[in-house]
């Protein structure tokens, strides 16, 4: 019976590229999956597409494809490598066009298919209510995107059509990995136990380096070698869903029961009910066993019937965030930074800056978790941030911090300021029959 | 003993909710963690950081991997996309929780 080998080439849009190339070249893979869509990435991409109708896909798509396409397809003496990615973001069709163009440029022939159907903006009605209590109608012109989380369906169609590269928009992260397992092993869409096992593999791999030693090191307690050359993970999977998590020999990082456990629980609420469009997965009885160096066997996942509703992520504009920072150091630094904080807040009130919400904190003292430190650091950095309806108000936040140079306490240095538009994300649920994936050639 | 020496942690985010895993280094310490790291204690530790009126903190047990999972609604104050926090994802929350003391 064959063993399927699936590698994870990215855990987020801006992730490192060399580890993916290393996997494509040395991983002996059947599939390389790139998961690049965070909660609001697609809303930002939709905005980009408004500016450029052929844009709206992942900015690193071209670079990634240029590097891995030479290994894709059939090569003598090797497994056939295929790529699955959600780098299509808000525009999978244009992303597929770009990948075909790159393949031609490299003199390669490969079949590239796009999966669409996640964009449900036109389907929604103004009276529909978001999880934050607002109706869609109340957002008016500020509403920019609505994307349903697709499951395995469209990807399965593309694999049946013999695609070498499958490009999607919003698809549930583990589904990107579950689809090739179902396709290769012929798992039924109602075999909940197998789908639960395959979803565990997907969940462990979807953040790439986070299961192979990245985001784990704690010097003295949890040591990890060579994070500068961190190897991205791959799974070896059997037809019954039994899986080993490992990485390319010689790469940096670590695969251990501890790294796997951190990733098992990452972004999971009830471990007995991990909801995806494909299955209600149960991770509550999973076990990990170290088989040899950097090889961990994952067992014990199961599943139940899939949810009747699918989640839709809605992106909307929600004002502007203005921010300013300035540092103080040496004896009395904290007192001077506190004085600076008081001055800025008073100035914002005196000059009538309209703010929805404001925060002023001292980085090094109380910025992350409130006031907890009893020792005075050598240096602190004042940070003031506010969300405003109007850009013109948001600009004033950083300006008021900057003017501390000549108007504030002694010795402020290294001021910086920024303004950004807020693309907020909320969600709603749709019955699954309202969402239909399809492929576009 | 500080929890930092007995367990490790990772924090995830979904919307305005964080989840924090606490994983015992040694299986023999897990019952101690189950007994002492109650949802109430975690609620108290993060007092002031969560949205007033947020739903209660929930705790899930994963005995096979000697871990607890705490789910904290309302701690990301509007979620990653709207939050004014320096660490809008709340990624540093789990490390803070390792400050708790566990008694033998």
Q: What's the structural blueprint in terms of helices and strands?
A:
The complex is a heterodimer of chains A (441) and B (104).
Chain A: E1 4-10, H1 18-26, E2 31-34, H2 41-51, H3 61-68, E3 82-85, H4 92-105, E4 112-116, H5 136-139, E5 143-148, H6 153-160, E6 165-168, H7 173-185, H8 192-205, E7 233-237, E8 243-247, H9 257-265, E9 274-275, E10 280-282, E11 287-292, E12 295-299, E13 302-304, E14 309-329, H10 333-350, E15 357-363, E16 379-388, H11 391-402, H12 404-407, E17 413-431, E18 438-440
Parallel strand pairs in A: 1-2, 2-3, 3-6, 4-6
Antiparallel strand pairs in A: 1-7, 4-18, 5-14, 7-8, 8-12, 9-10, 10-13, 11-12, 14-16, 14-17, 15-16
Helix pairs in contact in A: 3-4, 6-7, 7-8, 10-11
Chain B: H1 3-6, E1 7-14, E2 17-24, H2 30-36, H3 39-45, E3 58-62, E4 67-72, H4 93-97
Antiparallel strand pairs in B: 1-2, 2-4, 3-4
Describe this structure as you would to a colleague.
The complex is a heterodimer of chains A (441) and B (104). Chain A is an alpha+beta fold. Chain A has two domains: 4-121 and 148-307, no CATH class; 314-426, ACT-like. Chain A, domain 2 (Alpha-Beta Plaits), CATH 3.30.70. Helices cover 28% and strands 27% of the residues of chain A. Chain A has helices spanning 18-26, 41-51, 61-68, 92-105, 136-139, 153-160, 173-185, 192-205, 257-265, 333-350, 391-402, 404-407; strands spanning 4-10, 31-34, 82-85, 112-116, 143-148, 165-168, 233-237, 243-247, 274-275, 280-282, 287-292, 295-299, 302-304, 309-329, 357-363, 379-388, 413-431, 438-440. Chain B is elongated, with a radius of gyration of 13 Å. Chain B is built from four helices and four strands, in the order H-E-E-H-H-E-E-H. Chain B has one domain (3-97): Alpha-Beta Plaits, CATH 3.30.70. In chain B, a hairpin with a 4-residue loop joins strand 3 (58-62) and strand 4 (67-72). Chain A binds chain B through residues 39-40, 131, 215-216, 218, 221-222, 257-258, 261-272, 283-288, 300, 318, 321, 357-359, 361, 363, 367-370, 372, 383, 385-387, 422-425, 427, and chain B through 4-5, 8-10, 12-15, 17, 19, 21, 23, 25, 48-49, 58, 60, 62, 64-67, 69, 71, 78-82, 84-87, 92-93, 96, 99.
